């Protein structure tokens, strides 16, 4: 088992290195071709920032697959399965459309069609859902049409969920990386814990996706030097969906043989185990929630579901008073709590400690979420000793006004004609004064 772990680590490191090293040249290329859109009303950043970061991430994906193909244990994934080639085909198509959108701003319906075609390309090459376990019934085999439709739906929903949450520096890449780390642990457990080789492709996809996000994050953290754009957000959304679909479509529930008894009882008891498989969107529950709320909000207003606005979850965190970095960290916290909590519950669903720990961490998350509402205020007698943010509103305003008036320079006294001024300059007349620095800098 140690050898596969080292090979996964090598694949991860190569993907991280290639993505990181490519991002710098890609940034210069994006600036050269003019892939720097103007600041929009819904944007949070203040300066035009180049996009096309997905080019570097796609390079990391190709490098990770190439390295894994030449490793002893991971080479079998390419020999026994066509899923890596299916993933690469779908990823190349969606990445190309994303690059065009980053440069030319394609219509939303064109991108939606490209997402469906990319998912269909993967289905044609065998990366599709074959069966799902249903409580009280057992494993239900799907017809080719049912499996393909469900696969396309999951891919499209996951891509748009990741795309919708990509609104703050480092947010989408970090959340997907956290979710993928939890998914990797689960897929690795299925492969080596139960000896099911059908989970090998999903484990490889998760390792490569982590490398793509980790390699891009140093360039994308606040203040971001480059954005991943749709070429990156749609790409990582597709890879995440492909990893979950690979496990769901290829791992036979009966092969795990965790429970003894009838098929219905076994499937019902194994339902917590298959939560990350049947419902891969629970791994990205935060982006999925943002997607649903955005669609409901825009439809209620009579707008298109694809119309842009400033009502996303990260925008609401900023409106509550959180800083840019704190809003991103709060989203990281909730993403990790839901992802790792789901995986932990699927492994030990009978443990009450896991439920208690998740509940306690959820309470901590709510406290952090409402932290700006509970900003401590100093007593009246101590307000002069603390920064303005800890004072009462009226006192803080008075203090700010007093500081502004104190900082304003006093006008110079009249200087008699022929007498040198402060800087050695000769005054022209009695009304000559030193320049007003505050007014001189107000045009900035």
Layout of helices and strands, plus pairs?
Elements: H1 2-33, H2 54-69, H3 75-80, H4 83-104, H5 108-124, E1 131-134, E2 138-141, H6 144-165, H7 171-194, H8 200-220, H9 229-250, H10 253-256, H11 263-269, H12 275-278, H13 285-300, H14 313-320, H15 324-347, H16 352-369, H17 393-407, H18 437-440
Antiparallel strand pairs: 1-2
Helix pairs in contact: 1-2, 1-8, 2-4, 2-8, 2-9, 4-5, 4-9, 5-6, 6-9, 6-13, 7-8, 7-9, 7-15, 8-9, 15-16
Tell me the β content: under 5%
Number of helices: 18
Strand segment count: 2
Assembly type: single chain
Radius of gyration over all CA atoms, rounded = 28 Å
Distance between the termini: 62 Å
Extract low-pLDDT stretches.
258-264, 412-444
Q: Based on CA inertia axes, which overall geometry fits? A: globular
Strand order of the biggest β-sheet: 1-2
Relative helix content? 55-70%
Category from helices, strands and their pairing: mainly alpha
Mean model confidence by pLDDT:
77
Q: Could you give a short account of the major beta sheet?
A: 2 strands, antiparallel
């Amino acid at each position: 088992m140690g050898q596969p772990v080292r090979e996964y680590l090598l694949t991860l490191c190569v993907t991280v290195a290639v993505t990181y090293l490519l991002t710098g040249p890609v940034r210069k290329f994006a600036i050269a071709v003019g892939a720097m859109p103007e600041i929009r009303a819904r944007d949070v950043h203040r300066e035009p920032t180049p996009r096309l970061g997905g080019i570097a991430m796609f390079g990391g994906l190709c490098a990770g697959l190439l390295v894994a193909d030449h490793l002893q244990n991971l080479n079998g994934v390419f020999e026994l399965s066509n899923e890596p080639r299916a993933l690469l085909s779908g990823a190349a198509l969606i990445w190309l459309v994303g690059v065009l959108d980053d440069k030319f701003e394609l219509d939303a319906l064109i991108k939606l069609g490209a997402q469906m075609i990319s998912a269909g390309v993967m289905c044609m090459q065998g990366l599709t859902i074959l069966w799902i376990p249903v409580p009280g019934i057992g494993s239900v085999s799907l017809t080719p049409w049912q499996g393909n439709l469900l696969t396309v739906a999951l891919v499209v929903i996951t891509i748009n969920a990741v795309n919708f949450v990509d609104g703050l520096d480092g947010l989408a890449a970090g959340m997907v990386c956290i979710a993928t780390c939890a998914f990797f642990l689960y897929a690795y457990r299925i492969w080596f814990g139960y000896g099911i080789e059908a989970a090998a492709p999903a484990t490889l996809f998760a390792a490569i996706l982590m490398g793509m996000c980790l390699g891009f994050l140093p360039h994308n953290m606040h203040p971001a030097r480059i954005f991943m754009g749709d070429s990156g957000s749609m790409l990582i959304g597709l890879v995440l969906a492909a990893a979950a679909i690979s496990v769901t479509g290829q791992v036979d529930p009966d092969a795990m043989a965790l429970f003894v008894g009838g098929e219905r009882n076994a499937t019902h008891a194994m339902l917590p185990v298959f939560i990350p498989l049947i419902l891969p969107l629970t791994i990205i529950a935060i982006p999925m929630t943002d997607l649903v709320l955005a669609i409901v909000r825009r439809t209620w207003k009579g707008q298109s579901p694809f119309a842009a606005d400033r009502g996303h979850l990260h925008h609401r965190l900023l409106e509550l008073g959180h800083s840019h970095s704190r809003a991103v960290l709060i989203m990281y916290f909730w993403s990790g709590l839901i992802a790792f909590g789901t995986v932990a519950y699927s492994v030990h669903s009978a443990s009450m400690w896991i439920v208690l720990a998740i509940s306690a961490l959820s309470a901590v998350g709510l406290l952090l979420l409402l932290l700006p509402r509970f900003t401590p205020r100093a007593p009246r007698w101590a307000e002069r000793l603390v920064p303005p943010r800890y004072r009462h509103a009226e006192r803080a305003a008075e203090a700010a006004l007093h500081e502004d008036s104190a900082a304003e320079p006093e006008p110079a006294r009249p200087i008699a004609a022929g007498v040198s001024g402060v800087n050695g300059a000769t005054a022209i007349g009695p009304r000559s004064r030193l320049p007003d620095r505050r007014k001189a800098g107000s045009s900035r």
